[in-house]
Write a structure and sequence with these properties.
Structural class: alpha/beta
Helix content: 40-55%
Number of helices: 11
Order of helices and strands: EHEHEHEHEEHEHEHEHEEHEHH
Strand order of the largest sheet: 2-1-3-5-6-4
Shape: globular
Distance between the termini: 29 Å
Length: 265
């Protein structure tokens, strides 16, 4: 039996177990997905312990992405992003990946969004950093908008060709953009949006990384403006799909994983 898992603290809220278990069932794989909840200073020890126990691969969630980055050998993309959320334990040493970037790219492609032109990424935290690199690597010109403009400029300095902006510039920043991705938590705990509704337009494709609720205020406003909308569950799904495919070398059963995810939302 292959064993995969998740380390985080807490992990009880995670939607990864039902997603991955659905994949194993669909493909008739002899595999299980388990969770580990180590103390906040024990991420490296947890990764090594999982490897000793024969675990094949791990997802990593809050608060361990930075600690995991320091405990494994990150691939080039994870190295640039500076965080790891997926670990392969089958090699001579643990190998780390960041699937958030690919998750956003695959979510947009699933909705036939052309990844050329200009993208606006709202938020300069971990998710914003991953998405900015992912879209830049696809060839998009990336504009990063953040409440603290200095953080936007710092991230833009790391992402090839990117520029940094404050949230007060969003009307101008979004006006001629092709893609908009919200990578903040705004809209999760209250009916709010980080982007003014009158800044949105019909030539835009909008991905909101917030997946609870599925239909955020930003997505409602984007739909009303005639934009293409992509909810955050698609990004969550495809980061899990990418991890599954890295661990197994098998094409993931995307439909089954999507059904299992949305059944829990």
């Amino acid at each position: 039996m292959d064993v995969f898992g998740l380390i985080g603290n807490p992990v009880g809220h995670s939607l990864s177990p039902p997603m991955h278990e659905a994949a194993y069932e669909q493909l008739d794989m002899d595999a299980r997905y388990v969770t580990f909840e180590p103390d906040e200073d024990a991420a490296a020890a947890a990764i090594q312990s999982a490897r000793t126990l024969g675990v094949t691969g791990l997802n990593v969630t809050i608060p361990f992405k930075q600690a995991a980055f320091e405990a494994v050998d990150p691939d080039p993309l994870a190295q640039r992003i500076g965080a790891v959320n997926t670990v392969d334990l089958t090699g001579d040493e643990p190998r780390g990946y960041n699937t958030d970037a690919v998750g956003a790219v695959r979510a947009l492609r699933r909705h036939d969004v052309a990844l050329d032109g200009t993208a606006v990424v709202v938020g300069a935290g971990g998710a914003g950093r991953a998405v900015a690199f992912g879209l830049a690597d696809e060839g998009m010109s990336v504009r990063i908008a953040n409440r603290t403009v200095e953080r936007a400029h710092d991230l833009a300095a790391d992402v090839p060709g990117a520029t940094g902006h404050g949230l007060d510039e969003l009307h101008d920043t979004v006006a001629d953009a092709d893609v908009l991705v919200n990578c903040t938590s705004v809209g999760m705990d209250e009916d709010a949006t980080p982007v003014p509704a009158d800044a949105l337009h019909g030539d835009l494709s909008v991905l909101d990384a917030v997946y609870s609720p599925i239909e955020t205020r930003l997505l409602r406003a984007a739909d009303a403006a005639g934009a293409t909308t992509v909810d955050g569950a698609w990004m969550l799904l495809f980061q899990g799909v990418e991890a599954f495919e890295r661990w197994t070398g098998v094409s993931a059963p995307v439909a089954a994983m999507n059904d299992a995810l949305r059944d829990r939302l």
